[in-house]
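Database export, one record per block. Field names are fixed; values are copied verbatim from the stored entry.
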Amino acid sequence: MNTKSPNSIFSLKAALLLLLCSLQYAFAQNNGNVEGQIFTNDNKVAAFVNVVVENTNKGGISDENGYYKLNSISAGKHTLTFSLLGLETKSIEVEIKEGQTTNVANIILNLTEEQLNEVVLEVKRKNKFDQKQTDYVARLPLKNLENPQVYSVITGELLEELQVTDIQSTLQNSPGISNVMQGIGSGGVGVNLYLRGFSADIATRNGIGTAFRTSTDQANVDRIEVIKGPSGTLFGTSIVSSYGGVINLVTKKPYESFGGSVGFSTGSFNLARLTVDINTPLNKEETVLFRLNAAKHSEHSFQDAGLSRNWFAAPSLTYKANDRLTLNLEAELYRTKAPSTYFNPSRSGIASLDDLNYNFEHSYGSDYLNNDIRSYNVFANADYKISNNWTSKTTLSSSNVDNSTNYLFLDFADDSTANRRIMNIESQFSVIEIQQNFIGEFSIGKMNNKLVVGLDYYDLKTPYRRTQFVYDTVGPDNPTPDFNINLYENTLGETEAFRVGTRDQHSFNIYASDVLEITDKLSVMASLRLDNYNDIASDYSQSYLAPKFGAVYQIVKDKLSIFGNYMNGFKNVAPDLSSGEIVTLNPEYASQIEGGVKAELFKGKLSTILSYYDITVKDAVRYVLDGSVYTQVQDGKKSSKGFEVEIIANPLRGWNIVAGYANNSSAFEEGDEAIIGNTPYAAPENVFNLWTSYKIAEGPANGLGFGFGTNYVSESYVNDANTILCPGYTILNASIFYDKPSYRIGVKFNNITDEEYWSNMGSYVQPQKTRNTVISLAYKF
């Protein structure tokens, strides 16, 4: 097995630390830092106190333990001011020295009368798992309680606590997400998941489309937004959105001080992961800001074969041209070599995956059979303040991906033997999306309006060549078969491609969304999208109107609201050519009616959402065998109904909870008589997630923390005929960590009970990681 030696790993780490020190010297040689800790006069740490360097734009907030650190302050004497509502404001004078960190003696702030009455600190307590403020969900500056749509956010703080090393493991911490696994399709390998009974991908970054079925690294992810329900009105067709929702990755952005971190993770399956995050201003005025996030990842499969190797770099630059115009440029460079193995039990004759005569320790794959994926993505946006009430946002996304994919399909002929079928796909993704939004706020009489008017252009080109053949047969008598890479390459060269072509699609869209505040508690939303879609390769075009309506009434202002929405999604369908004639088909369309309650109570310590939804998909296409030819028939109808609960709580200082439960009932209502009443594949009825942690905030053990979590997914079907069952599962995880302002050490125990379970995408399933441990160390500066 070819793995890096510890010496080479530490040499790389040492080189990166040297680079870090060089950058710090280059950009901060005339500056210094200041740090310290703040207490109240009753001997408690003072969290979330504002710390400001007077007559500069430098400042920060103390953390949960009262620590603060301000970087890149010009040398000389400065005045620091400490303030928080409910506490006495205090100013001190400090002298900053070049290239040094000044340690300030403990600051003591007296409690004011309001604090003595326990009014303030409770308001300011930070619920670190609850950060719902977003510019992407509604494309308008709406608070969670003002938005009639349901969405959840996996915050950066939760990502850090979970110690996950890939996006796939992260997503299971959002209510209703299940069956997260490697995606398959078009020669790409991304992340596939199921949400509200429908398949979804990750194809959106910072609110704009990018190459789907293509992975990225978590090193550059600041937060993940899970936008629920068919969102075609603002996000477009199924190219970037699903009937179940949209997964939007929000990337890390530059900020106005020198800082960052270096981290290393190791653990089970020869895990070795190095991450670097460096941020710095590039000029004294701090109008040009630069940030680099990078990662190098190496890991063996939890099974007997399979190696993953990838590297990632994401430089980003922000230029504040003036008080009206801000420009941002970001790139993602990513390369991965990793296996993709899928189990196909459709012809095995088994009733459940439990009936497979299969040992989870065997992959039936090889260390030499991998995908080689290289991607280069660029994102650029310009924010221009036209006036006090109007803003222009222009965004460009360009994704270029070269894939040399080797899917390994294990086609089971019975409960124990399978053909190893290899499909090689050479493909190139080229995706460009340009989006322009005008966002304004104005009044009509006494009623306030928030309006976004936008247009976007989406272009996708994917040339591909597909070849497949059966390599050999495996089973209990041959559980660790030999794989000869030379034999594979020779056979591939002698096999004719069964399909060669190009996907060439583009769409042009205009949309508008308006929120009218009828009173300070009642608001209504009306949105509409006109979508014009063209498939050049298949020579057809379709236009579609996608409406969206919503209403919110705040029973208690800024604390409790009830909401309702009607939302729409659609999928373009190519003409049927099976009869030798062109038969035009309408777009599939989905509509959702949803209602529920949102609450942010107890001074921010409890946030919860309870909702019920009903999604109907009409004009669904199904395939009917007519003689020896499959014909497309557009008479299908699916329903997906259910309710979801999300709870995010901070009941005690240092104790945080995020939990969710989703119940879904999906069924075929029209179409093939053989499946009417059946449950669509990969749609479990119940999904539950929980993560809770406690971090000691005071005393000699402050910074020490513990976490515990569980994920439960009920059984689902592997096929629409409901003849093969994918068993449900329960996963238990735990962690222990020590978190200080300048470093963090953590140990995460995943799948403690060593559960053997599967992720299900219908027709194909994939075994998931057994018990494993991740040890993480991070130095923060």
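Remark 1: The helical segments are 6-28, 113-116, 121-124, 156-162, 167-170, 232-235, 485-494.
Remark 2: The first helix runs from residue 6 to 28.
End of record.
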